[in-house]
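Hello again, I could really use a second opinion on something today. I've been puzzling over a protein and I'd love to understand its fold better. I'm sending you its amino acid sequence along with the backbone structure tokens. It would help a lot if you went through both lines with me. I've dropped the whole record in just underneath, so have a look.
***
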Amino acid sequence: MGEEGLAEISARYIRFADTEAHGRSPLYEELARAVAGDRETLGFLSTLPDVKRQPNLLLAAVRHLFGTPTGWNEFRQALQANPDAIRSLMLERSTQTKEPGRCATLLTVLAPLPQPLALLAVGTAA
């Protein structure tokens, strides 16, 4: 993959940091920005199919396999030491990114009900 392809992957991670992680997850914002600036990690991502390069999939794969990293250095070390395991997990899994905030309007109805509760999503995205 050429420079243009790496720049597109980098832009995707910057966009994720700006629009998805900013104000919600300082760690994921830090990691996404660091991935965007790390040529070696971008190269790793370039070996995956486009649909598997999504930031939340990479972040979730590392977290699933090695626990929550304390920051970029720990994240990068896990990726450098275990690229095959991370690649394999990313290729077999996918993410569902429905916004949990959409359920906020139900809070006033659900809060007084006996706990714990479980919600079942039914529909085309379920």
Q: What stands out?
A: The mean pLDDT is 90. The radius of gyration is 17 Å. Residues 3-98 form one domain. DSSP finds seven helices and no strands in the chain.
